[in-house]
Design a protein that fits this description.
Length: 198
């Protein structure tokens, strides 16, 4: 999938894998947090729930933050119902409860919701507003792993933004690869000669 942002999510809302456009779309989730209270995504894969409740950029990224926050807690509740003994899920819920009043209040409501389709209204820091329908698909027999894809209406402002984001992502990836690749020896530089010197 190249023209569609796509992710593999765990039941804890960890991003286990993403294609290039998905990573570009959710670049704020992958970015280091700006606050000094600790990492929103400590060791391990980026986590959507940590981003929603612990990263100050989440309110700007999700234009319907309240709805996203409610859905996030409801999905974690559903996952807790599937596997009440998942230690990493328990640790995540404990961390969010300790650090976020917004999470605590929503968790106490005991709402459970599993949605496989819908729409997200995002504000990306590079390309601006996007309105993207999404669909999720279970992966194999493990109902807690999902493939999440976003699409845009053809010829829409959101499609134009996705196209621009794909270009930005390719340019950024090329620049990073060039910066991180080892310098190639200059064949005209005598110091790179393999022949022994006196």
């Amino acid at each position: 999938m190249t023209g569609t942002p796509a992710f593999v999510l765990s039941g804890r809302l960890d991003i286990l894998a993403a294609n290039a456009l998905g990573r570009a779309l959710f670049s704020p989730v992958y970015a280091p947090p700006a606050d000094s209270t600790g990492p929103a995504n400590p060791l391990g894969p980026p986590n959507n729930a940590r981003f929603v409740f612990l990263d100050p950029h989440a309110n700007a990224f999700f234009r319907d933050w309240d709805e996203v926050a409610n859905d996030t807690v409801a999905m974690l509740r559903a996952e807790a119902g599937r596997d009440a003994y998942d230690r990493r899920l328990t640790d995540l819920i404990g961390e969010l409860s300790t650090r976020s009043e917004e999470f605590r209040r929503r968790w106490a409501a005991h709402n459970v919701r599993i949605h496989t389709t819908g729409a997200k209204r995002l504000h990306h820091p590079v390309v601006g507003d996007l309105d993207l329908p999404f669909e999720t698909f279970p992966l194999g027999t493990d109902s807690s792993r999902l493939l999440l894809t976003y699409t845009a209406e053809p010829a829409s402002r959101s499609q134009e933004a996705l196209n621009l984001l794909a270009s930005w992502s390719a340019t950024t990836s090329d620049a990073i690869a060039e910066r991180e690749s080892p310098a190639k020896p200059d064949p005209t530089d005598a110091s790179n000669s393999a022949e022994p010197r006196d």
